[in-house]
Amino acid sequence: MRYLDEYRDPRLAAVLLERLRGVATRPWRLMEVCGGQTHTIVRQGIDELLPAGIRMIHGPGCPVCVTPLETLDRAMAIAARPGTLFTSFGDMLRVPGSHTDLLALRARGCDVRVVYSPMDAVELARRHPDRHVVFLAVGFETTAPANAMAVLRAAGLGLANFSLLVSHVLVPPAMTAVLDAPGCRVQAFLAAGHVCAVMGWTQYLPLVARYRVPVVVTGFEPLDLLEGILMAVTQLEQGRAEVENQYARAVRREGNTAAQEAVRRVFRVADQAWRGVGTIAGSGLVLAEEYAAFDAARRFDVGRLVVRERAECIAGAVLTGTKVPTDCGAYGTACTPRTPLGAPMVSSEGTCAAYYSAGRSAAPEDEGAVP
Amino acid sequence: MCLGIPGRVTTTDRDDGLLMGTVDFGGVRKRVCLEYLPDVRPGEYVIVHVGFAITMVDAAEAERTLRVLRAMGDAVAAELGERLP
Ligand code: SF4
Known about the structure:
The structure holds two protein chains of two kinds.
Chain A: H1 10-23, E1 28-34, H2 35-43, H3 46-49, E2 54-61, H4 63-66, H5 69-79, E3 84-88, H6 102-107, E4 112-114, H7 118-127, E5 132-139, H8 144-156, E6 162-169, H9 171-180, E7 188-192, H10 193-199, H11 205-211, E8 215-218, H12 222-238, E9 243-245, H13 257-266, E10 267-274, E11 278-287, H14 296-299, H15 315-319, H16 351-357
Parallel strand pairs in A: 1-2, 1-7, 3-4, 3-5, 5-6, 7-8, 8-9
Antiparallel strand pairs in A: 6-11, 10-11
Chain B: E1 5-15, E2 18-25, E3 28-33, E4 45-49, E5 52-57, H1 59-70, H2 73-80
Antiparallel strand pairs in B: 1-2, 1-4, 2-3, 4-5
The structure holds iron/sulfur cluster.
The site of iron/sulfur cluster (SF4) has 15 residues of chain A, from helix 15.
């Protein structure tokens, strides 16, 4: 159990919790979509402070976790080719593929480098005309504009030695998939604040209308989350289902239109496989035909890939919120951040890693009586 | 990679036509692409994802967020490539 004085403003947190206790008359289950939010909730013990019956279900919003095993195996096959300079965000390096990981490949002499931005990968291509630079382009709507600009930049500079291995996922179709899943227990969503900073929030209006489910755009600080939870529970108690914006200091209704425009130019929407979850219609981005020359998957034929998931890993159930990490037999024993069996134990945004770093050994109490 | 970090734009410039700038994240300075916020001015605060400013944010709010992020050292180091001082 955490204590309120660990919060930035413990008095404000206490006030929000008090109001939540005043508002909640029944058990409710809310899903936070973003892995960054999961991390804050678990690390700060927010779920343990909530009134009994208010339950947070952790969503699939960890880009590292949902990148398909096939994409990872392809990345490693490409990275192992002579002449390749392979680049990636740092958190992808330790994700286990079927046989190995990128870090192990690097130790064996492959040129695998961590970049802070995809533009750094473009710069490497400019500086190494004799090498082919590949960037592993993963992530949600927050990283898509950056990857789009990298392609536009490489095209503008006429770089023939740069390409992306793309595995992009979109949030709203994943939320729809969560709601459509049999036995769905989610009654309201906290939407990911930074995804909305890019995309705006009107894209949730159809979902709210169709499923009558409240969506609250929420930031990722502890107080943001408490306020987002209060707003969502208030809607549920009042029988309302609307899009509300808790994170107005960073999110505008229309989002960042320049970024959306670049994404529309470079990518097109396609069906996408989510590791552990399955294929979700219209939930991904692939390079538009005009930019096909920058598609590493088309450029490099690596033959047929035979993928093999670890049998003991229940990451799929963890990602969709039907199980928690402590339900997994490998959690904290065979699987730790130093010896991860599955992606959710690798990424700082993964639920298993969040549980582990917070020292969790049991799930929070399930819906009890409301005081 | 999804953790956006707020910082203050200190300078802006053009690099081969691309709108770039230097952003100060509570002491750590980084080159950031500003193409998606073409109207941003030095002194203003932005939230940065993987080297791109994606939205403006109120100055006081940005300072508060940085204080919270300092307590989350590992996650920030993964995002910025170095720790906040
Ligand atoms: S604890 Fe490890 S093995 Fe279990 S679900 Fe999480 S990542 Fe998979």
